[in-house]
Amino acid sequence: GAILTAEHVLEREDDDIKVGLADGKVVSAAVVGRDATTDLALLRVEASGLATPEWRSPEGIRTGHVAVALSRPGNAVRAQLGIISAAAPSWRTPAGGELAAYLQPDVEPSWGFSGGLLADVSGKAIGMNTSGIVRRTPLAIPSPTLERVVRMLLTQGRVPRGYLGIAAYPVRLPKAAREQLGQSRGLIVIGVDPNSPAEQAGLVLGDVLTAIEGTAVRHHGDVAARLGPEMVGKAVTLRIIRAGTVQDLRVTIRERAGAA
Question: Which distant-in-sequence residues (6+ apart) come within 8 Å of 67 by Cβ?
């Protein structure tokens, strides 16, 4: 069987993972794959007949809805009653992972919280709890994100991430560039990795990145949003400002090493 848990609760080289099952048995588990950007890890256990929750879509979940956070830090299940203190549409984590919704319950992320379920009052699962995406902030990863990441982990053992190979800093664009491009900010390149896609495309220190494949970039999150799994291996257009002149460069996005 397969069990999904929070990635941050596993040691990086953990080869002695034990899982306690509902019937009291303790079984060994092996890591199928992990994705730190969404804080998810998939385990394989020698067990059958594992119960699966009934999931509900994040659509329709609103701030103020009652929720129950379930965890099992020991032999007994622990429950915390609370509400959804914040709910919003799709959100990108600080590490670049994409969640189908931002769901924050007002419960204490105590021992055993991460990897447990957040359920509604009918018992349907809202998401998987974690406090590892934003430090000490309880969040629930919604079911569409869980399904998408699990599919990739089962088929590839990882979630591929695009790699450009630059270090950059947000800057305000000159007036002429603001008027020409219709945006006020971009990212000035302060570092280029050797043999990276950026170096091969001709990016140099001092270039200001303003768009990737026609989508404006104003901060680091905009770049992360354009380097998802679907972009690996694709040739895209970078729009830059070099010495006051707007230019386009073509670059082929590679997979980030160690994406698992």
Answer: 81, 82, 83, 84, 105, 107, 118, 119, 120, 121, 126, 140
Q: Tokens for 203, please give them.
A: 């990016």
pLDDT in tens, 239-254: 999 999 999 999 999 9
* Assessment of whether the complete model's pTM goes beyond 0.90: no
Q: β-strand 78-88 against 66-71: which pairing, if any?
A: antiparallel
**What domains are defined for the chain?**
2-156 (2.40.10.120), 162-255 (2.30.42.10)
**pLDDT tens for each residue of 114-157:** 999 999 999 999 999 999 999 889 999 999 999 999 999 999 99
Alpha helices, H only, the chain: 143-156, 175-181, 197-201, 220-225
**Cα dist. 51→23, 78, 178, 218, 228 in Å?**
11, 18, 56, 45, 32
